[in-house]
């Protein structure tokens, strides 16, 4: 038995109610993005609101809060029990600190801001969004004050998305990569070993065949279709509904098959994390991945380090050809270069693995400066464009391909972006550590030993769920966040001729 302490067991008995509501909300959310009829919306919105209210009321109820606080005083709790208390105290504390009226105001502003952002993006006019964004940053500063912080108020916001993350951590991480990445990008683009575009981007595919290919790849990785699904949605996502019910989606268009394939592999990485959490943790608040950053390290590991590798592409080339007959005109090498184009570009979600982090650095700098009141919102477009020029040597022609491109700010998600970079950088550290234990990743991919890779990830990371706080888990697996393995990986891969 994992949970022995009586007071923790009492907390978990009560928690079942919260778990059930969350479970229902996850299933509802998945449905909204996949099969919900177009016209539904008004009932669904009300139902979600009601369920969330029941959740919050119970989370903040005397009965529940007292049970958690009592349990937190217990000595000699095991790691799982401590994890349960840590996760719940954190959530309770956030709600305790933020006044109800503030949460209501924030969500009202966000609803209006989302609509304004859509209009502004369509018209490529930042001014239409500016007053809403000013309000969002103003409220975000207020939020930081309510939550409390040491050092920068931005720390309070970072912590909401990545438990324990501070500006100091992020500054250090970006300082390590900023200059080396700029140099590397210049070298890669001037060497012309890697290409900026490829005719395969234009090759059209049959959607049904693409779906079959995605399923085939998932089978090769050993995706457990008895406990998991793949469906289609506008934007790919993963929903871990329960311990035996994890669902991913992919997206489909007319051409450029790698977009669908790599999205599937990315989401597989997220799904695998949820699927490999110890089943003994079911119905508890730690039966889920611990943070956005660590989750993203898993998806990027599979997408970049496996999906874009020479070994994966060469072993799967014949399979690709069965489903994508146009590949008969191309060699393995073509597919490799097509999967690994390098081009400084304006849009974050389309960026390659070399230039991607530059996009995050830019957003981080702007968010931090706004929260610390070093700049004001109407300066965003000009700062954005200057920074793009400095980091990637390109300038947006308009705001919709510049500072209006992401949905995050309109949703009030200030402090979210750095988790993407943590994921990318951590993935390379994980690879290095894994190789010490089970041998070179490239060899394992060549032998299609995905079971070994999955077992290692399960043993070292997945099985714990949220037992350990992100920093603690990182410490146990790789020590601390360090960008060198990531930089070395990029250099080795991209400064080499095929
Ligand atoms: Mg992801």
Spatially, the strands of the biggest sheet line up as 1-3-2
Cα(first) to Cα(last) distance is 52 Å
Give me the strand/helix succession. HHHHHHHHHEEEHHHHHHHHHHH
CA gyration radius, whole angstroms: 23 Å
Query: Which overall shape is indicated by the principal axes computed on the Cα atoms?
Result: globular
- Biggest beta sheet summary: 3 strands, mixed
- Which stretches are poorly predicted, pLDDT < 50 over at least 5 residues? none
DSSP helix fraction? 55-70%
| Continuous helix count | 20
Question: What's the mean pLDDT score?
Answer: 96
List the ions, cofactors and other small molecules found in this model.
magnesium ion
Which band does the percent of strand residues land in?
under 5%
Tally of strands: 3
Q: How would you summarize the topology of this molecule?
A:
Layout lengths: L5 H28 L8 H18 L2 H11 L6 H19 L2 H24 L2 H22 L6 H8 L5 H25 L15 H15 L6 E5 L5 E5 L2 E6 L6 H19 L16 H16 L2 H14 L8 H8 L16 H16 L8 H13 L25 H21 L2 H6 L3 H11 L9 H8 L6 H11 L4
Parallel strand pairs: 1-3
Antiparallel strand pairs: 2-3
Helix pairs in contact: 1-2, 1-3, 3-4, 5-6, 6-7, 8-20, 9-10, 9-12, 10-11, 11-16, 12-13, 14-15, 14-16, 16-20
Bound molecules: magnesium ion.
The site of magnesium ion has 4 residues, from helix 10 and helix 11.
């Amino acid at each position: 038995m994992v949970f022995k302490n009586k007071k923790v067991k009492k907390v978990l008995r009560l928690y079942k109610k919260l778990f059930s509501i969350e479970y229902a909300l996850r299933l509802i959310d998945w449905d909204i993005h996949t099969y919900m009829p177009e016209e539904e919306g008004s009932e669904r919105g009300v139902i979600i609101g009601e369920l969330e209210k029941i959740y919050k009321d119970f989370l903040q109820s005397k009965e529940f809060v007292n049970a958690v606080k009592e349990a937190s005083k217990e000595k000699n709790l095991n790691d799982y029990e401590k994890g349960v208390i840590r996760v719940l105290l954190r959530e309770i504390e956030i709600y305790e600190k933020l006044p109800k009226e503030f949460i209501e105001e924030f969500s009202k502003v966000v609803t209006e801001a989302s609509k304004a952002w859509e209009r502004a993006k369509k018209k490529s006019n930042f001014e239409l969004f500016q007053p809403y964004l000013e309000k969002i940053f103003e409220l975000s500063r207020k939020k930081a004050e309510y939550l409390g912080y040491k050092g920068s108020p931005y720390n309070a916001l970072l912590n909401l998305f990545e438990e324990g993350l501070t500006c100091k951590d992020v500054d250090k991480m970006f300082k390590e990569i900023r200059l080396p990445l700029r140099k590397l990008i210049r070298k890669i683009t001037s060497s012309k070993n890697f290409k900026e575009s490829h005719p395969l981007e234009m090759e059209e595919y049959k959607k049904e065949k693409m779906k079959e290919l995605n399923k085939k790849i998932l089978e090769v990785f050993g995706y457990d279709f008895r406990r998991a699904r793949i469906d289609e949605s506008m934007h790919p996502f993963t929903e871990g509904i329960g311990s035996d019910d994890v669902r991913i989606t992919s997206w489909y268009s007319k051409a450029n098959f790698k977009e669908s394939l790599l999205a599937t592999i990315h989401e597989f990485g997220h799904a695998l994390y949820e699927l490999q959490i110890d089943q003994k943790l079911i119905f508890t608040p730690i039966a889920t991945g611990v943070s956005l950053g660590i989750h993203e390290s898993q998806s990027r590991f599979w997408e970049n380090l496996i999906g874009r590798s020479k070994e994966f592409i060469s072993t799967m080339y014949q399979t690709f050809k069965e489903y994508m007959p146009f590949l008969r005109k191309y060699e393995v090498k073509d597919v490799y270069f097509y999967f690994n184009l390098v081009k400084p570009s304006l849009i974050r979600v389309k960026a390659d693995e070399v230039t991607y982090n530059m996009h995050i650095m830019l957003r981080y700098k702007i968010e931090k400066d706004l929260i610390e009141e070093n700049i004001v919102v109407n300066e965003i477009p000009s700062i954005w464009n200057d920074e793009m020029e400095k980091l990637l040597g390109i300038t947006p022609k308009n705001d919709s391909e510049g500072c209006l491109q992401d949905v995050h700010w309109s949703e009030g998600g200030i402090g979210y972006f750095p988790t993407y970079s943590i994921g990318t950088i951590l993935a390379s550290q994980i690879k290095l550590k894994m190789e010490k234990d089970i041998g070179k990743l490239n060899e394992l991919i060549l032998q299609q030993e995905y079971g070994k890779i999955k077992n290692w990830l399960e043993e070292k990371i997945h099985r714990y769920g949220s037992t350990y706080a992100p920093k603690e888990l990182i410490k146990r697996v790789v020590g601390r966040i360090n960008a060198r393995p990531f930089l070395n990986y990029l250099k080795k891969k991209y400064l080499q001729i095929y």
